[in-house]
Every structure is written in structure tokens, then in C-alpha cells.
Amino acid sequence: MAGIFSGLEKLGLGNIGGGDLFEDPKKKETVVKKEEPKKKLALVKEEDFLFDKKYKCPVCESEFEAKTVRTGKVRMRAVDIDLRPDYSEVDQNKYDVIGCPECGYAALGRYFTTLNKYQIEDVRVKICMNYRKIDYKEPTYSYEHAKSLYQLALANAVVKKAKNSEKAYICLKTAWVVRGETQRLDESDPEYETKKKENNEQEKELLTNALNGFVMARQSEEFPIAGMDSTTLDYLIAALAMETDQYDIAGKMISEILTSRVANSRIKDKARILKDMLTEKTGAQ
Length: 285
What we know:
This protein is an alpha+beta fold. The chain is about 45% helix and about 15% strand. It has a two-stranded antiparallel ribbon. It has a two-stranded antiparallel ribbon with strand order 3-4. The chain has a two-stranded antiparallel ribbon with strand order 5-6. Helix 6 packs antiparallel against helix 7.
């Protein structure tokens, strides 16, 4: 698990990590315009789809701003088999973590304010007291910065003893960010193959952790889990199992979806695609 947290040392949180990530339930730039006579052509940039949204930290009560994607401004061009949305203009996944720059508390947007007093105290003692503030003033988030925020969110989730589903969801979305970075690597870079290999290994590790966490959450948590109903989660588990070469789990979950009386036709269609992929990989019918 140390690889997932590699890099937190620069934030003063090198002591976070070690041990098991999941708890087994059986024992959480300005717009550039080119002017022409009677005509203007705008060069659209990533920052054109962002704005600074104000937040109040539930841990230290500081007010701060974080980059947020403008709702309805980006177009989805595809959805990966593990439900990762792929947007045309900006990688929206980079901006899904809200991090307080003052104290180091960070979480995915859906979990940012859902803290009890005991969790707040744990974060103050184990995160805030060790956190080294880093000022980030760029108009957009680099992939390096986005991954750092996700690491911080996972560290906070571990400290506050978050549900397995929350920790699994952070791992999944971190994997999505790594995949987005890989897709945007420059193939002319002499280090391209090395970077691609490193990213692919990191993504697979994160997907494996996400799979393990969601399987445990399915056994112990009530639905909805990370905003998903039971059939959506079952599909996601099947997809993650396919991506991490755990074909026995994939086959079991695909079968359950296809024979389910409550799964809708959309999910069943996606499950059939997974079944075809499984057959191609294993030769099983």
C-alpha cells in the first residue's frame, strides 16, 4: 500500500500508510482571442471551463476556494467499462477532490462535509498537526497536483476511519486520473514508454484496491453505496475484476447481473459486453 501514498512526505504526512487500507467486515490561463475585421476567433483553454468555488473547512473552519468544473460546459465523449467518464474539453476527474490548503483536510466532494466530531479530532491530530502547507497558484490542476490531492484524500479517509466504500471510491477515481494522464502523454517524449509503464502499473494497483474495497463494502454496507444501487455496484465490481485479471469474480458478477430480475436493460447490455470480453480472454462460454 506504500506505493499509493508515495509522495505524501512533501506534505509532511509520510507517516500515513502502512497496515491494511480496508477494514475487513468479518473481523473508509486567460482566453486568447485573435481579432480579424468583423470577426473574432477564441482559443478555448482548460481554465475557461473552471471557476473558483468557495468552501468552509469542517475541520479548521477556514474559508478557501477550489477549482471546480462549470456544470454543463464539458461534453462527455465516452464512458470506459469501469464507468469512468471521458470528457472532450477537460479531464473533470482532476477536480473532484476538495482540499483545504490551510489544514490538509481533503475529501471527495460527496464526503467533504460528512464528518462527526470524533473524525474531526482524528484529522486534527494526525493530519493537521503534521501538514505542511503548499500554495498552488496555477490556473488549472496539473495531473501531479491532482494525484497529490487524491493521495491526501485517501490519507484523510484512513485517519478518519471512513467506510470501505469511500476509500474504494477514492482509489477508483485516482486510477481514473492516472489513466487520463497516460492518455495525454507525449509519444515523442524519450521517456514516454517508461512513464506509460509506470502509470499502467500504478493504475492497476489502484483498481485492485478499489475492487477489494467495493467487495468488502458490498458485504457490510447498506445501499446506496458511493451513490450506486446494487446492480450498478455489481457491474462495477465485474468491470474492475476484468481490468485486474480476476476472471472468476468477473464471471460470477456478470452471471448475477444477467439473471437479475431488478437489473435494467442498460446494465444488462453493459454486462453482455463484459461477458464477450471474458469469453475472449478465457475462452469460457
